[in-house]
Design a protein that fits this description.
The complex is a heterodimer of chains A (448) and B (309). By secondary structure, chain A is an alpha/beta fold. Chain A folds into 2 domains: 305 residues, no CATH class; 106 residues, 3-Layer(aba) Sandwich (D-Maltodextrin-Binding Protein, domain 2), CATH 3.40.190. Chain A has 17 helices and 6 strands. In chain A, a hairpin with a 5-residue loop joins strand 5 and strand 6. The longest helix of chain A has 37 residues. Chain A is elongated and about 95 Å long. By secondary structure, chain B is of the alpha/beta class. Chain B folds into 2 domains: 219 residues, Rossmann fold (3-Layer(aba) Sandwich), CATH 3.40.50; 65 residues, Alpha-Beta Plaits (2-Layer Sandwich), CATH 3.30.70. In chain B, strand 4 and strand 5 form a beta hairpin. In chain B, helix 2 packs across helix 3. The chains are: A alpha/beta (448), B alpha/beta (309). At the A-B interface, helix 1 and helix 8 of A face helix 2 of B.
Chain lengths: 448, 309
Amino acid sequence: MQNKTFLIIAREFLTRIRKKSFIIMTLVGPLLFAAVAIGPAWFATMDDREVRVIGVIDSSKLFIGNLPETQYLKFEYLENTGVDEVRASFSETGYHAVLYIAHIITSTPSAVQLMSDRQPSMNIRMHIANAMEKELERQKLAAYDIDNLDNILAAVRTSVNIRTIVWQDDGGEVESNMELAMIVGYLGGFLIYIFIFLFGAQVMRGVIEEKSSRVVEIIISSVRPFQLMAGKIVGIGLVGLTQFFLWVILSFAIITFVQQVFLRDALRPSSEMVVEDMFSSSTLQQAQPVENENTELFAEIFTSLGTINFGVMLGAFLFYFLGGFLLYASLFAAIGSAADSETDTQQFMLPVTVPLILSIIVMMSAITSPDGAIAFWFSMIPLTSPVIMMARIPFGVPLWEAALSGGLLIAAFLFTTWLAGKIYRTGILMYGKKVNYVELWKWLRYRN
Amino acid sequence: MELFSAKNISKSFINHQALSDVNIAVPENSIYGLLGPNGAGKTTLIRIINQITAPDSGELFLRGRRLRQNDVHLIGYMPEERGLYKKMKVGEQVLYFGRLKGLDKKTALKKLKYWFTKFEIQSWWDKKVEELSKGMQQKIQFIITILHEPELLIFDEPFSGFDPVNASLLKNEINGLRDRGSTIIFSTHDMSSVEELCDHITLIDNSKVVLDGEINRIRQRFKLDIFRVGFRGDAEKLNSILNNGYQVLDLGSTSAGHTARIKMHRKDSDNELLKMLLPHFQITFFHEEVPGMNDIFIDLVGRQKTAAG
C-alpha cells in the first residue's frame, strides 16, 4: 500500500519537473532575482555616466558658485538673463534643466523652481534641495557672527548609531540589525506566500484534471482516494522544494558570477553612489563624511549578516513551507474535487485565499512590530502562521511561541487533511452537480 | 463454482436509494451481464465491487472469502467514462497503471510489450495520449484493464463509443478472455450484445434485482407459448382445424406458402399442435418463439414503471 502511494508521488513529481514550464520557471526565477538584486546598481551606473548641466538663474545671488557639483552633475550660473529667454532657446543650450531661485529665498524657502522640458530625476532635485538647505543654514549661522564657527560645527555634529542587542536565555548577547531582520523576514514570509499559492493551485488543478479526464475512477479502483490525494500533495510539495533549492543555488551562482565578471569594477563606485542617493536626503551632511558613514553602515550590515542564523531560517522556512503547504494544499484538493472545472471553484476559493492574502497584509505590520499582539496572534493561527511566523523569526522568537505555533500548525494540517480527504473521496466521483456548502456538509457525513 | 458474489448489498445516498438488498453470484469462467435502465444502480454496484465506494450493508466475496482492499490486483476495471492522462506518454502511462495494480516494473514491461506487439501499436509508446484518436485511446484503456491479468474483469458499458468494427473486435477479445479463464462482469444497455455474449444476467431496476439467472433459462421462462408455423395448403381451414385451446395471432402469405403465429393457451405439448396440423397441411417449418432480451427488458422495466406510476 505504501508502495503505491510512493508510485503516485513519483509520478506527480516526475511529470511536473520534466515539464517545460518547470524548467523555464527554474531558469527565469533566478534571473529575475538576480535582476532585482543587481539591476538597480547596474542602472545607476548606466544612468549617471551622462553628464548633466543645470542652468542656474539666481536672483538672490546667494548661491552663485556655491552649489556642490558631482562627477555627473554640473551647474552653470547664468547672469543677466531671464527664465523666458532661456526657455526660448532651451534646446540649443543643452541644459538638462534650469534652476530659478527668486531673490526672496531667505524668507520664502519655496521660491525655487526647477524647470525642464522633461521630468528631472528625484536624485537631482534632492541633491539641489540638500545643497541649498545647507548653504542657507551656513549663511544664516554666519549672520550670527560666531568666531570659530566651522570648528564649533564640526565639534557639535554627532552621529548617533544605535546598536540593538538581544539578550539570550543562556545569558549571552546577540547583536541584531533591525533593517536586515526586516528584509529577511519580509522575504521569507513573502516566499512562503508565493509558494503556497503557486503550488496549492497546482494541487487543485491536478485534482480537476484527473476528475475531468475521468482518470480518477481507474486510479481509485487500484488505490484508496486518500492515497491518491496524499500522493498528489506530497509530490507537488516536493516539486516546490526542488524549485526553491534550485532557485537559491542558481540565484547565488548568477549573482556571484555577474559580480565577479562584469561588475567587479563598476559595482564598487556605483554602489556608493546608489547609497548616496538613498541616504543623502535624510542625512543632511556634507559630501565627504556621508560616504564614509555609508561604507560603515554597509560593513555593519555585512557583519550582522552573521547574526542572522541561516540554519534556523532555513529550517523554519522548510517547516513553515511544508506545514503551510500541506494545510492549504489539502483544502485546495478538496475544492478541486468538488468542481468539474476551474471556473466552478470560485465560490470555494474565496474563504481559502482570504486568510492567505490577509497574512501578507498583516505581515507588513508584523515586521515593524514583531512582538506586538497582532504579530503574536496571527503567528499562532495556523492559516496565517506560516507567513507571519516566518516574518517574525529573524527578529528572534521565544522558543515556547515557536513550539506552540508549530504544534498548532501540525494539528491544523492533520485536521484539514482529514477533512479534505472526506470531501475528496465523495467529490471525485460526483459529476455534473452544482455543489454548494450544504452539499459539502453532507459529504462530510457520508460513510464511504 | 462461484468466483464472485455479493450478498444483501444496500447503499443509499442522501435523497435516494441506489441499491436495496441486491444479491449477485457470478460463476467462474463466465460472462455475466448486469442490465438495467439508466439510474437503476448498476454503476453504484460496480463501484462497490471495485471497492471505490463501500456499501451501507452487505458483503462481497471472492472465491468464497471476503473481498479485501488488497484484492484490487485480482480485479480489472474499465469504467464507462474512459479516462487517461492526456499529457502523459502512452508507454509510461500503461506502465504506471500496471504498477498501481501491483505488478513490479519488470513484469509490467514484459506484459506491456506483449500487448503492444499483439495490437501492433509499438510505435505509440512515446506518443502522448492526446495525440491518439479516440479509438486508439480505447485500445490503450483496454490494455490497462487487463494488463495485470485479473481473475475478475469488470466492463461498464464497454461498447459505448465504439464503432461497429471495434465493438466486434472488443467482443472477440472478451470472449477470448473468458476462454482463457477470466470471469467477466459487464453492464450494458445493448441487449443484442447480451444475447451474444452473456451466460448469466442480473436485471436491476429501481435499486432492486428484478430478474437473474442463466440467460437461456430466462428466455425460456419468458416465452409466451407462441409457435411460428410455415405451411402450404388452404389457409382458410386453419381456424376450423384448431380447437379452442389455440389462437391464430397472425397469418401471412407469400408465393412460397403461409406463415402463422399461433398462441397455445393450454400447456399442451408441442406435438399436439403438430398432430392437428399434419393431416391438413404440408409443414415447411415449425418453431417456438423465444423472446429476445430486449423484449424481456422492456416488459419487466415497463411493468415496474406502470406499477410505480
